[in-house]
From TrEMBL:
One of the record's GO cellular component terms: nucleus
Residue numbers spanned by region Disordered: 538-573, 594-626
Family: Belongs to the themis family.
Protein name (Swiss-Prot/TrEMBL): Protein THEMIS2 isoform X2
Stored InterPro entries: CABIT_dom, THEMIS
Pfam families attached to this UniProt entry: CABIT
Record-annotated CABIT domain positions: 18-236, 269-510
Annotated source species: Phyllostomus discolor (pale spear-nosed bat)
Domain of life: Eukaryota
GO annotation, biological process: T cell receptor signaling pathway
Recorded name of the encoding gene: THEMIS2
Length: 639
């Protein structure tokens, strides 16, 4: 085949013969873009091969051959087209009939008039196709019996042969839609007419988008048919040519097989690594990679180490076979306690430091001493002193005895306290669970986050690092498809790759791969800090709302006024105590009165049975409470 312009080749191409392999005979470069403009390929080099798989009609340009004017038509254009046999017109119907008889054509024929035809029955618009069925006498006049089709309505008209035109003969056949006119090989290059367009004759020039496969191009290439390039059809001599089409791992995952799939790495995504595993350095261009299929199960757990200044982060597969033992969880706020509470599972904690409450702010918000045992009951609401309802956590203060020794009568007398959700403290879970769990059972029975200790390593993972740490915090469970892969250079190394975050570009290779025996999967992968925090920002991690903010306190001016007033009261109290005679009884009375007046500043925790009185460790040494304690201490020394 001789080289032809791409537009001419596409217009003459029968879509039923696709696919076709073309070779570019003269390349083209479109200034302004190296590869594509508006999603279309615009740079083809001489010698390039492409396999045309599909044609898509983009638009049709209607051209007036006389004036050169053009109109763009949408592929869904509703008008009908009829072909003209040539540029000759006839002045009367008699001339048209005589020309048909002389050319030995048989009736019926199609024709039209460029002027409006007025009859008794109907007005025929200009350029409306008519079918001339026969010539006969009608009302004493030699007439042409014509048929006018208006949609579903058919009208028979008798036009005298003496009627003046001009008239144009149309090719035999009914008017065609735009797509029918473009697909009919007999109409290619002919003049057409359409009653809904302003010109008597026109030429249709379709513009196609060519869908093709090219060497080393990952996606289907879109090429405009108007690209000024010459091509030749080499389909017959290209049966041995194999078009190499790169794939992304995400595309392999979406395709779903067949597996195993032997590939070669073409490109590795740029950017910092996400795993700290030794196989990361082997992912480079040219490395053979065998994809064995989907890793099972699809869920993983994010974990961080405990007991180290610099934590390390891991992704643990659901197939992990190590044994884990629960460790007491630590909580810093009442909001954390509420998040850890599960229906049907009692949650008991021990306070690890003294914390001061404020019953005036929220009724029942009492102080806690280090060693206090609490049983978390659930969420509630209380009316705060600042107005409006506040979210609270309801708890029972337990005795120092073990929970098993508590009887029902004692449970009824337990003190109920409330903690606002913004309350900050230090709590440790009270537990006596010594069972050993596998990862699947642990995540099914207990909510995350969860504190654990790996007591038995995974036997299928000889380099399992998790038992080396004194504790792990299982943060959250994520579900994401991974692909199980291995390297050709190291056949015994199997690992899992998440295409969502490590989308390698590969190319399929011909020779098959035959794995030997079962496939050991790496169940623990260490993560970089950046990737770990990226995973914690996923929507699954954002399902929990932030903890509530504490209520607003008094403004700064009111606090200064109140602190100044309290300072004056304390200074007058000190001078009064120094001037009076040292009478122990009067001094004790004065102390009791001062303490009573200052009940809002400091209140002593009432002693309880079985609890050791402790001093509050949250007082500010520079605050008002410290000044008051100095006054009391000095006064007691004078007794």
């Amino acid at each position: 085949m001789e080289p032809v312009p791409l537009q001419d080749f596409v217009c003459a191409l029968d879509p039923a013969t696709l696919p076709r392999v073309l070779r570019v005979c003269s390349g083209v470069y479109f200034q302004g873009s190296i590869y594509e403009i508006s999603g279309n390929e615009c740079c083809l080099s001489t010698g390039d091969l492409m396999k045309v798989t599909q044609l898509r009609l983009q638009k049709v340009v209607c051209e007036n051959p006389g004036s050169g004017q053009t109109i763009e038509l949408d592929p869904n254009f509703k008008g009908h087209f009829s072909p003209l046999t040539g540029p000759q017109s006839y002045g009367t119907l008699e001339e048209l009939v005589s020309a048909v008889v002389q050319s030995s054509k048989q009736l019926p024929i199609w024709f039209m008039s460029t002027c409006r035809i007025d009859t008794r029955m109907r007005v025929v618009p200009e350029e409306q196709p008519l079918m001339l069925e026969a010539v006969e006498m009608y009302l004493g006049t030699c007439s042409a019996r014509c048929v006018l089709s208006m949609g579903t309505q058919v009208v028979v008209l008798h036009l005298p042969l003496s009627m003046k035109g001009p008239f144009w003969e149309l090719q035999t056949g009914a008017p065609r839609t735009l797509l029918q006119a473009l697909q009919d090989p007999a109409l290619k290059g002919l003049l057409l007419t359409c009653p809904t367009l302003p010109w008597r004759s026109l030429i249709l020039r379709p513009h196609y988008e060519i869908q093709a496969i090219m060497q080393m191009r990952r996606t289907i290439v879109s090429i405009p048919s108007t690209l000024e390039v010459d091509v030749e059809d080499v389909t017959a001599s290209s049966e041995h040519i194999h078009f190499i089409q790169p794939l992304l791992l995400s595309e392999v995952l979406a395709r779903g097989g067949p597996f195993p799939l032997n590939t070669q790495i073409l490109e590795v995504p740029e950017g910092p690594p996400i795993f700290l595993s030794p196989w990361v350095g082997s992912l480079r261009k040219g490395q053979g990679l065998c994809i064995h299929g989907l890793a099972s199960p699809p869920w993983r757990v994010l974990a961080s180490t405990k007991g180290r200044k610099v934590p390390r982060y891991f992704m643990v597969s659901g197939a992990y076979h190590g044994k884990l033992r629960r460790r007491p969880r630590e909580f810093t706020t009442a909001y954390d306690l509420l998040g850890a509470l599960q229906p049907g599972r009692p949650l008991r904690v021990v306070a690890m430091k003294d914390c001061e409450g404020d019953e005036e702010e929220i009724p029942g918000f009492t102080s806690l001493a280090m060693g206090d045992r609490l049983e978390v009951l659930g969420a509630g609401q209380a009316h705060g002193s600042h107005g409006g309802d506040m979210d609270i956590l309801m708890c029972h203060r337990l005795s120092d005895q073990a929970g098993e020794e508590e009887c029902e009568e004692e449970a009824e007398d337990q003190e109920q306290i409330v903690l606002p959700l913004y309350f900050s403290g230090s709590f440790v879970e009270e537990m006596s669970d010594t069972r050993r769990y596998n990862l699947a059972d642990l995540t099914a029975q207990f909510s995350l986050p969860c504190e654990v200790k790996v007591v038995t390593k995974d036997s299928s993972h000889p380099a399992d690092p998790l038992p080396l740490f004194p504790g792990l915090r299982l943060e959250e469970k994520i579900t994401e498809p991974f692909l199980l892969v291995s390297l050709d250079s190291e056949p015994g190394m199997y690992f899992e790759i998440p295409p969502r975050w490590l989308d390698l570009t590969v190319v399929e290779e011909e020779h098959p791969y035959r794995p030997a025996g079962s496939l050991p999967a790496a169940t623990v992968e260490e993560l970089t800090d950046a990737f770990y925090y990226h995973l914690r920002k996923l929507p699954a991690s954002e399902s929990q709302g932030p903890p509530p903010r504490p209520p607003k306190r008094q403004n700064l001016s009111e606090q200064k006024k109140r602190s100044g007033l309290e300072g004056n009261i304390k200074s007058s109290l000190v001078s009064e105590l120094q001037q009076r005679p040292l009478l122990p009884k009067l001094k004790m009375t004065t102390l009791a009165k001062a303490t009573e007046d200052r009940s809002n500043t400091y209140s002593k925790i009432p002693p309880r049975t079985g609890l050791k009185p402790t001093k509050c460790s949250t007082l500010d040494p520079d605050g008002d409470e410290h000044d008051y304690e100095e006054v009391v201490e000095r006064f007691q020394k004078t007794l």
